[in-house]
Amino acid sequence: MKRRLLMGAAAAALPMVAAAQQPSRTAASSVPSARRTFVLVHGAWHGGWCWARVAQRLRAQGHTVYAPTLTGLADRRHLLSPQINLDTHIQDIALLLEHEELRDVVLVGHSYAGIVISGVADRVPGPLAQLVYLDALLLESGKSIFSSFSKDVVAQRLQAIKETGAGVGAVAAFPPSAFGVHDAADAAWVARRLTPQPVGTYLQPLILEAPLGNGVAKTYIDCTREPMTNLVAGKIRIRGDSSWTLRTLDTGHDAMVTAPAELTSLLMDIAG
Q1: 131-140: b or e for each residue (b if 16 or more CB lie within 10 Å)?
Q2: What dotted CATH number matches 25-271?
Q3: What gap in Å lies between CA 269 and CA 272, rounded to an integer?
Q4: DSSP annotation string for the chain
Q5: Which residues are registered as beta bridge partners of 218?
Q6: In angstroms, rounded to a whole number, what is the distance separating the alpha carbons of residues 55 and 65?
Q7: Does residue 141 have an active-site annotation?
Q8: Is 62 left (phi over 0), alpha (psi -120 to 50) or beta?
Q9: What's the rounded Cα separation, in Å, for the pair 226 and 213?
Q10: Which of 88-102, 140-154, 157-171 has the lowest mean pLDDT?
Q11: Strand partners, 37
Q12: Is the pLDDT of residue 146 over 60?
């Protein structure tokens, strides 16, 4: 199948990028000799905002960090339309890599964004050094998100679309507790930032021309508290697969919120 990037009107807008900060003089002694470039991609209903605590810590160690928001969500919710789909979000990240001329990137995808980074690696593997799947969804080529859900969950998602208005083309967000966020202050911070997820991202299948990862080194971080049922099959599948490195983190699904220090240390260890 001919490789291509779909150019939709909503997809054409580049993701908003968080500018890398330089470490202070007082922190210079802690800056590692190997500085990395991290691109952190958020999951469904979230935005680049969710990485703030991790991005701050990585930058303090001298790393370059981009935390874009995918089209139609969070600070880019004004671009929400029924035309947004998985290809839109794959293109968001592919264009970021291209226009920022990034190289040797550690590309991190959380939850839904596991599908996004799989699509990016399939299309533009050249800039990538590593793929990190943070408690992320893994799909086989030809499958959509709905393919990984039970009929009851699919019906629930479709009902949520009706409740938010069919013309909006989006699925209402779940409460923070669904993502393992139980601290009252954290939950309030997350709740007021969650936005509806474009339904096209659920419906469009992931199409891969190469094996998942396209030859880029792959690490999966399994968040072991309150595991999400739709992720279990993928986690089982990669156990014993020598093409994967499996790491664990004792926290809930939104690890960047609930365990930012531990996640930062793990990402730096994976990046080397």
Answers
A1: bbbbbbbbbe
A2: 3.40.50.1820
A3: 5
A4: --------TTTTSPPP-PPPPPPPGGGGGG--SS--EEEEE--TT--GGGGHHHHHHHHHTT-EEE-PPPTTSGGGGGG--TT-BHHHHHHHHHHHHHHTT--SEEEEEETTHHHHHHHHHHH--TTEEEEEEES-----TT--GGGGS-HHHHHHHHHHHHHH-TTT-EEPPPPGGGGT--SHHHHHHHHTT--PEETHHHHSPP--SSSTTTTSEEEEEEE-SS--HHHHHHHHHHTT-TTEEEEEESS-S-HHHH-HHHHHHHHHHHH-
A5: 131, 244
A6: 6
A7: no
A8: left
A9: 27
A10: 157-171
A11: 64, 105
A12: yes
Q: Give the mean pLDDT of 102-113.
A: 98
Residue 111, sorted as left (phi over 0), alpha (psi -120 to 50) or beta, turns out to be left
Site of tokens 């508290």: 225
* Catalytic residue selected from 29, 30, 33, 111: 111
Query: Which residue in 71, 34, 65 sits closest to 52, CA to CA?
Result: 65
Mean of pLDDT values over 250-261: 98
pTM: predicted TM-score of the whole model, two decimal places = 0.86
Instruction: Considering only residues 157 and 198, tell me which one the structure prediction assigns the higher pLDDT.
Output: 198
